[in-house]
Design brief:
- With 465 residues, this protein is an alpha+beta fold.
- It has 4 domains: 3-65, Orthogonal Bundle (Arc Repressor Mutant, subunit A); 151-216, Sulfite Reductase Hemoprotein,Domain 2 (Sulfite Reductase Hemoprotein, domain 2); 229-383, Sulfite Reductase Hemoprotein, domain 1 (2-Layer Sandwich), CATH 3.30.413; 418-465, no CATH class.
- Helices cover 39% and strands 12% of the residues.
- The strands form 4 sheets. The protein has a 5-stranded mixed β-sheet with strand order 6-7-8-9-10. Strands 3-5-4 form a 3-stranded antiparallel β-sheet, covered by helices on one side.
- Bound molecules: iron/sulfur cluster (SF4).
């Protein structure tokens, strides 16, 4: 169901328990006309912010119903939507934010338009052969903090390190490297929902040292910080499973290597299952591939998250070559047409003609743009570079990895930790009032922190700085 059609009793903001009907009433009864007014009136979207796209859709729909023209402007600096700006820059060939805002906008930009411009320049840069690294000199300063330092900032100001593990595969030798790095830097390890290992608790200044060791062990950026391909999840498929009808793992590895680093309006997730039992949950992904005895069924437009959506069947029984061709076209069309931070599910829902029209464009090439979309993806594949490897070779980029600009050699002295279930986690306010816990004490006793651990000596049940 499209967001605009949500029933009045559907919860839109789970943080503050605000219903779709309350959002509609804020427009029709209280006269709200902007997102800020709706937030203030209902308190929706004021905590985690994940419902803001849905709020915007509901607001715009109600404004349209009231006969008010809805602006598609990206922000006060650009009167165009993201898709319109993408086409303008594609045709105009501008290469920097300054050139773009001078040609098509006004002012100096903001936190809304700068990352969008960085993203579309990255996409256009790689698709046209003009390489724009999303984290390089030109675009790095436009990015959000996470893209800027190629790591996700955590609630205590430390960062996560998430290397790519295509299709969830990792060798024993690589696992040993991850374990040793975690021990040496006191990092917390957790398998995440993307079939890979997340390492948490690294200081900004430690990121290059950690990544040097990971790159030397054959790892590369997992782009967990970017609006780009995150991962391709797969089951073990016909290689190991009695029910498998295709080699889903090899297909997933091939797809992950093809689309890694591809910048897009929002994050992208892909899944490949080796049979209809669907252990990889491919239909919950932006692109879902499910094996059949004749080839692969391709699904598009699925996601989990706040507004879950099942992917819809685009075409059945594709061979390997045509599967890749269809995914190339789908992803490139999405990158060209979608609004800022719009997932594929909402884009497919909102697109005129829905899945049937999309099938005509992608499969039947009704617009005659199939070859162009494929060529753009081929350029992306040809110009891909690992962002962390490139950064480690560039002293200018490395210079930003300091905790304090005015005191580059000083680490943050205020980080506090507590042991929990055999690992370390950030301390929070309640920890100061926690009585000594025998379970925690046993976990602490079993901790084996390396001599170079930045965590220092541990004290039973207390914070460690
Ligand atoms: S999806 Fe099918 S092939 Fe893959 S693990 Fe499950 S049962 Fe086996």
């Amino acid at each position: 169901m499209a967001n605009a059609e949500l029933p009045d009793d559907a919860v839109v903001c789970s943080c503050n328990n605000v219903f779709a009907g309350t959002i509609r009433a804020s427009v029709t009864e209280h006269g709200c006309t902007t997102l800020g007014e709706v937030k203030e009136c209902t308190s929706a979207g004021t905590v985690c912010g994940s419902c803001v796209p849905t709020l915007t859709t509901l607001l715009n729909k109600e404004l349209e119903r009231s006969g008010i023209t809805v602006s598609t402007a990206m922000c006060e600096h650009f009167a165009h939507s993201r898709a319109e700006l993408y086409q303008l820059v594609k045709e105009g060939g501008q290469q920097t934010f300054t050139e773009i805002v001078t040609a098509f906008g006004r002012g100096r930009g903001c936190a809304v338009c700068k990352p969008v411009v960085a993203s579309l320049l990255s996409s256009l840069g790689t698709t046209s052969g003009r390489l724009h690294s999303p984290v390089g000199e030109q675009l790095g300063s436009l990015q959000d903090t996470n893209d800027h330092v190629m790591a996700n900032i955590q609630k205590n100001g430390t960062y996560s390190v998430i290397p790519r593990m295509p299709a969830g595969e990792v060798t024993p030798e690589q696992l040993l490297v991850l374990a040793q790095v975690a021990i040496d830097y006191g990092l917390y390890l957790k398998l995440n929902g993307a079939q890979r290992i997340g390492m948490f608790g690294a200081r900004l200044d430690q990121l290059p040292e950690i990544w040097r060791r990971l790159v030397d062990a054959g790892f590369e950026s997992g782009h967990a910080y970017g609006k780009s391909l995150r991962m391709v999840k797969s089951c073990v498929g016909s290689t190991w499973c009695r029910y498998g009808v295709q080699d889903s793992t090899s297909m997933a590895v091939a797809l992950e290597r093809r689309y890694r680093g591809l910048r897009s309006p929002h994050k992208l997730k892909v899944g490949v299952s080796g049979c209809a039992r669907e252990c990889a949950e491919a239909r919950a992904k932006d692109v879902g591939v499910i094996a059949t005895t004749k080839g692969w069924n391709l699904y598009v437009g699925g996601n989990g998250g706040a507004q879950p959506a099942h992917a819809q069947l685009l075409i059945e029984d594709l061979d390997d070559e045509n599967l890749v061709k269809c995914i190339d076209r789908f992803l490139m069309l999405y990158i060209q047409e979608a609004d800022k931070v719009q997932r594929t599910a909402r884009w497919v829902e909102d697109r005129a003609g829905g899945i049937e029209e999309l099938r005509r464009v992608i499969v039947e090439d009704s617009l005659g743009i199939g070859e162009e979309l494929e060529a753009q993806m081929a350029n992306h594949v040809a110009t891909y570079e690992d962002e962390w490897t490139a950064t480690l070779d560039d002293p200018q980029r490395l210079a930003k990895f300091v905790s304090f600009i005015n005191a580059p050699g000083v680490a943050d002295p205020d980080l506090a930790w507590v042991p929990e279930r055999g690992q370390m986690r950030p301390a929070h306010e309640m920890d100061q009032h926690t009585a000594p816990d025998p379970v925690r004490a046993r976990a602490l006793a079993s901790l084996s922190l390396g001599a170079t651990s930045p965590l220092g000596d541990s004290v039973d049940g207390e914070e460690i700085r």
